[in-house]
Amino acid sequence: MAIISVVGRGGKTTIKTMIENVLDDVEVYEGVANKDCDLIVMAGMARPFKKEVIHFPHAFKMIVNADVNYRLKVPYASEVVDYGFSRKATVTASSVIQEDWSQTFTCCIQRSFNAINGSHVQPREFKVHINVPGKYNIYNTLASITVLLLLDTKDEIISDTLSKLKFVGNMEKLYDGEFSVIYNKISNPYQLFSVLESLSENEFNNLYIITDSFNCKSYGFIKKIADILREWYQIYSYTICMQNDNCTAYLKRLLQSYGIECLSDECGEAIRGILNRIGKGDMVLLLGDNNVIKKPWADFFNIEKE
């Protein structure tokens, strides 16, 4: 059984989901839980911590994002197989087509490499369809495909399985009527940036963002969240809605100083504030951890989860 560790600052759960749904005989860990792994996957666009690299001295292969400048010396002689949009990437994507909350692209293997069992993965192309938007999810898919190819998985099995997958907490569409409700789990600023970037590929009128308290993270963490919201506010002009508590007070002050409209109240009242404004073609984006889903948004929107 192959053991795989996925490390990085975003995409770990999605990559784990993809791999485990294609193959049964694998163990996939998020983070550095098991150092005796066969494959290491560097997920996301953020540069990994040094400890995430040196933790795996015996791995057979390291899968890295070719579009990231790691600036870290790999502390062992395992082979590196890279993925990404770079022309130099071993596994890359071309002919990307956005299709209303899904996307199709051509996976291109640009040079040969050896699989774990000693077989040769030859240059070739095949079509891939995924039921989730966003450029960062193409990165997640390329990382997963690279792992699956290293485990000698057939192209048609990869394509067929990925095309049927639904992703919980990754641009998950909870409701699609006159307006839409989307949930994305957010645990760090990189993920927030990726989500807002992916929205540029979709059409909507007004955007309302409901955030949780981010588990009372540090001031530095909250400042990064606020700065990313300010950066994308120039494009979307959204309204932020959050629960009024000590954890969100600092975020609220920052957002208001940036000129971003921020509704802050008891959760139910905050949601009612959005209901008084929401119209046809608008989008509500739920961001944070699973606590956002557990809040009684469905009661106030008078809708049921799909």
From TrEMBL:
Instruction: Say which domain of life the source belongs to.
Output: Bacteria
Task: Report the coiled-coil segments.
Answer: none
Question: Mur ligase central domain location, by residue?
Answer: 62-147
Gene3D superfamilies reported for this sequence: Mur-like, catalytic domain
Question: Which molecular function term from Gene Ontology is one that the record holds?
Answer: ATP binding
Q: Which InterPro entries match?
A: Mur-like_cat_sf, Mur_ligase_cen
What Pfam families does the entry give? Mur_ligase_M (PF08245)
Task: Write down what this protein is called.
Answer: Mur ligase central domain-containing protein
